[in-house]
Amino acid sequence: MRYCPNCGKKLPEGARYCTNCGYRLTTGSAPQSTGNSIRSQTSAPHVSRAAVVDSRQKHHRHLGWVLVIILLIAVAGFWFYNNNGNDDGTVAPASSSLVSQSSATDSTSSASSSIVDDSSSSADKLTTGIGPKNTAAAVTYYAAKSGVSHWSGVLNTADGITVQLSTDKDLLNALSEPGQGMVYRVYGYHDVDSTDDTDFVYTVDRDDTIHIYTLPNDFDRDQTYEPNATVSKQDMVSYLNDHNYAENVTELGNKVDIDR
Questions:
Q1: Per-residue model confidence as pLDDT tens digits over 182-221
Q2: Structural domain tally of the chain?
Q3: Which of 28, 196, 227, 258 is most buried (CB neighbours < 10 A)?
Q4: Distance in angstroms (rounded) separating the CA atoms of residues 191 and 157
Q5: 156 and 188, same structural domain?
Q6: What's the whole-model pTM score?
Q7: Name one Pfam family in it (predicted).
């Protein structure tokens, strides 16, 4: 029998190592620590995975920098192309877009100018929406210029005209077209005396049809007088515009007094 010099365990003769502590009797070497062996075996794979992860991270960072550099080169090239054009002088797409926008702006400006011009020209034209003073001036101008009997004399005064509104029943009954029950008595001067006789009158229907009369100074109240002219307001306005009387009518309209 022999004993293990390391742990003192009793061993049979001829044993080469201690079955208790693993001491090698033939070489006299102490056994390796089992814990250290286990740690060595387990730590090796851990170090290997960390190395792999670190390697992958480095690879990803490398790819990221490559992509950033490529992107910067592409942006720089696009900027250079847009600002300088290519070698054959072709305008870059961005420049073409700017040219198109500029053309669109010019077209819009031209359209706006056209609208302004049309508005200015339409201001020289009469419309059916003119007020009572311009309507009286328009009737007077139409009657005088279209040849209604004696109406041209109304325009011979520089002081303007006076329109007297009348609902005189005798006068209305003497007219075949009394309109809406209102007679417009036109005088070629101002400061009209209500007792003065009238020569020039007109009435207006609900549909804006105008009836123009030239009456005797002392009209017969038992007689019915037919209009010397009948015209729609639209046709009257068209006639005055076509003969370039719009400005004259407007000027006369500023000199109209309405006597109620």
A1: 999 998 876 665 555 567 999 999 999 999 999 987 889 8
A2: 3
A3: 227
A4: 13
A5: yes
A6: 0.53
A7: Zn_Ribbon_1
